[in-house]
Write a structure and sequence with these properties.
Elements (H helix, E strand, L loop, with lengths): L1 H10 L10 H12 L8 H9 L4 E4 L8 H9 L3 E5 L3 H14 L7 E4 L5 H12 L5 E4 L1 H4 L2 H8 L3 E6 L19 H8 L4 E5 L4 H11 L5 E4 L7 E7 L3 H11 L4 E5 L3 H13 L4 E4 L5 H12 L5 E4 L12 E6 L6 H8 L9 E7 L1 H11 L4 H19 L4 H8 L13 H4 L4 E3 L1 H13 L6 H9 L4 H5 L16 H13 L3 E4 L5 E4 L1 H8 L5 E3 L28 H18 L3 H4 L2 H10 L4 H4 L7 H22 L19 H9 L4 H7 L4 H13 L7 H7 L2 H14 L5 H8 L5 H16 L1
Parallel strand pairs: 1-6, 1-7, 2-4, 2-5, 3-4, 5-6, 8-13, 9-11, 9-12, 10-11, 12-13
Antiparallel strand pairs: 14-17, 15-16
Length: 750
């Protein structure tokens, strides 16, 4: 490597190495950036780079990575090439540099697909004149022959590869075009390379160094600990109400809410606005102008909250983000760390709230279907790490830092939900010894889930294929479930008793420390993992779709009276009670005390139709109860609902009236059949009747329709799809059940 470097220096007269003393660096730091001193390793990194050496910088979000290449670029001869995937943010970064060097717009440029011919010509002119010190390049633009030819003509000071985790398949944001960077650099001409990332596991670090060909690079690793951040995972039972309540309790504070789907981003942003919270959506489906406007509104504090997919936030320099909320569980710990890291970059408070339910995991696993097997395996391993984090009762800071190869020695961080509200512990020396014994006794290596299944006595096809149901330890811990054993194994990894080999998709081995423990076990205090509800089926917002409403907190006396009234109404109308109002609807009534039809519609699962059809008696009961008991209603926490949740609502209603096949309706709106049914169910639950008989008659057997309809009319205790599928059995397809459920609700409940 050293000889190759010398060769390139000799044959490339454009390459220049300089050594910068501390006094000059400090004066330039003050001149350009207004800072009196460097943070952490910044000065060491800059000196190392300006001396002509390769560097690998691991620094958490807000640690000052950008300055590690911006300042060297300004003081070194030539132009620094900054390779970044953040096309949407390049202009912001260029504008920032131009702000540091007043009166010289040519000092920094970006090169990406957004430029027209005139703008490209200006970039070329400033590059050739030597005026440009920083050129931000998208990896896609770097591959173009005309750009490579242009860069060969200029004096390059160094290459900066930002968001370097994009190189690795094991990173949270893998970009295949990043794999070509080294070959392109060699084609353009040698200069030192600095790779920078805010998140990288040991595996990802290795991938970056190998792929960029900088195994000789000095690694500068800052602590990943962000002591000013508070971490919490909440049960996803009623996330919208929880979010609105949280934001109202933190008025005027800036925050980011992350959602998995574009649809959810749009809906949640709208919901926040109608509840008096200034919010805007941000996702890749919006046009560039709208995205830029919403981002600027957030940066300029015209709005308080941005609701976004992961398309938002990378490189955003807003130091006073006070909270980051994950409406859906992230796909990886790295992604989670990067996104939560956007809170509290100024060192002040930052709250990181994550909502979690088992349904989120099912959705994410579904997204992986159809991808190559290797990619699915990687995705599943990363997801399981996130699940372990969410369900754990251990210190969240310790879990996070352990994931990135950093040890956190404090017993209580004082800034996560598990440390502030510690759960009951137990002496787990026997259980840990049992796990170690099992791993050591097996001739092959297996993943955590397989080991847990053995100890819990769970039989499946893989267990049978290896004859592991005949092992002495099979079912040895059957008094505990699989989740319990997952927790023990995960804590064994944190304690360095067990090692998960990421290269082989998560196979578990025993360490020397683990063997030492097994020989002479000592007291080991462990915690069981948390139990979570299924959560709302929140993508379609259909009340009762198998959800288990957690919480309570309502007026128990009123709730009991409402249930009695529901029985009476159901008896008179010869319907089952759940058809009138679901339990979550009654719970909301016992919390919000609605005293008008309009207020009643704000309760979960109560649309216009149900409110008008069944609401009068319930409102009368609640009004009398409020008066008799002098109840002070919690107006502050009444959540206003979105009147028309579906942007496709009118089109779907009109198309059904025209008796168009559902497949054609779905195709016209770019929806899968499942997504169309989600939309239809949302419409029906809002109280609108839809007559799907024309489609049901053509596609479903009459006996099937009758049997499912009879089930909902006579047997079903709720409108839960999950319960219906379980009761009806495998003879019925989910689409069939959903269609008939829609028919039943339209005819009976609306």
């Amino acid at each position: 490597m050293f000889l190759r470097k010398i060769f390139h220096i000799l044959v490339n007269p454009n390459f220049a190495v300089m050594t910068t003393d501390s006094s000059l660096l400090h004066s330039k730091l003050k001149e350009f950036f207004g800072f009196d001193s460097f943070k952490a390793d910044q000065e060491r990194i800059i000196k190392h780079l300006t001396s002509g050496n390769n560097a690998f910088v691991l620094m958490p979000t807000g640690g000052g990575k950008s300055l590690c290449y911006q300042l060297p670029a300004l003081v070194m001869e030539g132009t620094a090439i900054v390779i970044s995937p953040l096309i949407a943010l390049m202009k912001n970064q260029v504008d920032a540099i131009r702000g540091f060097v007043a009166g010289n717009d040519g000092i920094a440029h970006f090169l990406n697909s957004s430029l027209n011919k005139a703008q490209l010509a200006e970039v070329r002119k400033d590059l050739m004149s030597g005026e440009t010190k920083l050129l931000y390049v998208a990896p896609e633009s770097l591959t173009k022959a005309e750009n490579i030819a242009m860069l060969k003509e200029i004096d390059i000071s160094f290459y900066a590869v930002d968001e370097a985790h994009c190189i690795s398949e094991w990173g949270h944001d893998f970009r295949p075009e990043y794999r070509r960077i080294r070959a392109i650099i060699e084609d353009i001409g040698y200069a030192p390379i600095i790779a920078l990332t805010a998140t990288a596991t040991p595996k990802v670090q290795s991938d970056i160094l190998k792929n960029l060909g900088i195994m000789d690079a000095t690694v500068f690793k800052s602590s990943f600990n962000r002591p000013n951040l508070y971490y919490e995972v909440r049960d996803k039972s009623d996330p919208k109400k929880d979010i609105i309540k949280f934001i109202r309790q933190n008025p005027g504070k800036s925050g980011i809410i992350y959602c998995l789907s574009r649809k959810k981003v749009e809906e949640l942003a709208e919901l926040l606005n109608i509840n008096g919270i200034k919010a805007a959506p941000y996702h890749a489906g919006l046009d560039a102008k709208t995205r830029a406007e919403n981002q600027d509104a957030f940066l300029m504090e015209e709005i308080d909250v941005i609701v976004a997919t992961i398309a938002f936030g990378m490189g955003i320099d807003k130091p006073d983000v006070r909270f980051v909320i994950h409406y859906d569980i992230p796909k990886s710990i790295e992604g989670y760390y990067q996104e939560t890291g956007r809170a509290g970059r100024d060192g002040q408070e930052g709250q990181c709230i994550t909502f979690y339910s088992y349904k989120d995991i099912q959705k994410l696993e579904k997204f992986m279907q159809g991808k190559p097997i290797a990619e699915q395996e990687i995705g599943k391993q990363l997801l399981m790490e996130t699940v372990a984090y969410a369900e754990s009762n251990s210190c969240r800071r310790k879990l996070l830092l352990n994931y990135f190869g950093e040890e956190y020695t404090e017993d209580n961080c004082g800034a996560c939900d598990n440390c502030l509200h510690p759960k009951k512990q137990f002496d787990g020396r026997e259980e840990m010894a049992m796990v170690i014994d099992l791993v050591e006794s097996l001739p092959e290596r297996f993943k955590m889930e397989h080991l847990s299944n053995i100890l819990a006595g769970e039989v499946n096809s893989i267990i049978k294929s290896y004859n592991h149901d005949r092992l002495e330890l099979f079912g040895a811990g059957k008094e505990h479930g699989v989740r319990f054993w997952n927790a023990v194994i995960h804590q064994g990894m944190i304690l360095k008793f067990l090692h998960k080999d990421i290269e082989s998709y998560g196979l578990i081995t025993v360490t020397d420390e683990g063997r030492r423990f097994a020989e002479s076990p000592w007291q080991l205090m462990l915690t069981e993992d948390r139990e979570f509800s299924d959560g709302e089926d929140d993508d379609d917002d259909v009340p009762g779709a198998g959800a288990v409403r957690g919480g309570g907190g309502g007026d128990e006396q009123l709730l009991s009276m409402l249930k009695d009234l529901r029985k009476d109404v159901a008896r008179k109308r010869k319907l089952q009670p759940w058809v009138i109002f679901s339990d979550p609807s009654l719970e909301d009534m016992s919390i919000m005390y609605p005293m008008s039809i309009e207020e009643l519609k704000n309760c979960q699962g109560v649309g216009e139709g149900k409110a008008r059809k069944f609401g009068k008696e319930f409102i009368e009961l609640i009004s009398k109860y409020v008066e008799d008991n002098e109840v002070v209603r919690p107006d502050d926490f009444v959540v206003k609902s979105i009147v028309n949740k579906s942007a496709n609502k009118v089109y779907i209603i009109q198309s059904v009236d025209r008796k168009l096949p559902l497949e054609d309706i779905a195709s016209a709106k770019g929806l899968e059949m499942e997504e169309l049914l989600d939309e239809i169910e949302a419409i029906v639950f809002s109280g609108t009747k839809l007559n799907l008989d024309y489609y049901i008659t053509q596609t479903l057997d009459e006996d099937v329709v009758d049997e499912i309809y009879e089930f909902f009319h006579e047997e079903a205790e709720s409108d839960s799809l999950a319960d219906a599928m379980e009761e009806l059995g495998s003879d019925y397809d989910e689409v069939e059940v959903r269609l008939v459920r829609i028919k039943f609700l339209c005819e009976v409940a609306n």
